[in-house]
Amino acid sequence: MKNKHLFGLLQGLFTIGTGILSVGFVAVSGFGVGMNLLNLEKIAAQSTIDVQGAGNLEALKAASSPLMILSVLLILAILIGISRLSSLIFKKLKQNEIFVVENVEKMKCIALLAGSLSILSSLPTFLMNHSGIGSGYMFDLGYLIVALLLLSFAKVWDRANELV
Question: What's the rounded Cα separation, in Å, for the pair 112 and 95?
Fold first, then answer.
C-alpha cells in the first residue's frame, strides 16, 4: 500500500514538472517572438542607459537569436518528454502493472532523450561562444551516465518481463 502512495506521489511530481516545463516552453517562445520583433539597435540608440556594461546589446542579440531560442525550446521539449514518460511509468507502477513491455519501451525512450541532452544541453553555450560572448564548451557527462544506467535498467526490466 505504501508503494502505491509513493508511486502516486512521484507521478504527481513528474506531472507538475511537465506543467512547469510547458510554461517555460511558452515563456521562451514568447520571449523569442517578442525579442525578434523589437529593433534592438534603435532602442539602444534612444536609451540614455549605458548598455556597454553587463548584459550589453551584443549579448542580448545573441540570446535572442532564432538559433538560440530554438535550441532552448528543443532542450525544454526533450525535458517535457522525459517528465511525461516518467509520469506514465509511475502511473503504471501505481496500478501494479510493473513488468509490462510499455514500461521498458518508455524507459528506453527516456534513456535516448537523456543521452541526446548530453550534447544538446551545451548547444546554447556553444552558440553564445560562436557569437563571441563567453568561452568554453562543456559536454554534459551526467546525462550520458544517466542514459546508460537507464538503458541497463531497461534491459534488466525487459529480462524480468520474460521471466514473469
Answer: 25
- What span, in angstroms and rounded, lies between the C-alpha atoms of 128 and 124? 6
Cα 73 from chain centroid?
A: 8
Helix, strand, coil tally for the chain in percent (to 5): 80, 0, 20
DSSP string, 58-98: HHHHHHTSHHHHHHHHHHHHHHHHHHHHHHHHHHHHHTT--
In this structure, are residues 74 and 120 in contact, taking their beta carbons and an 8 Å threshold? yes
For residues 41 and 79, give the distance between their C-alpha atoms in angstroms, rounded to a whole number.
34
CA 111 to chain centre: 13
Q: Tens digit of pLDDT for each residue in 9-46?
A: 999 999 999 999 999 999 999 888 887 777 666 655 55
Amino acid identity at 87 = S
SS3 47: coil
Query: Largest Cα–Cα distance of the chain, in whole Å?
Result: 72
Say what percent of the chain tops pLDDT 70: 81
DSSP run (H or E) holding 1: none
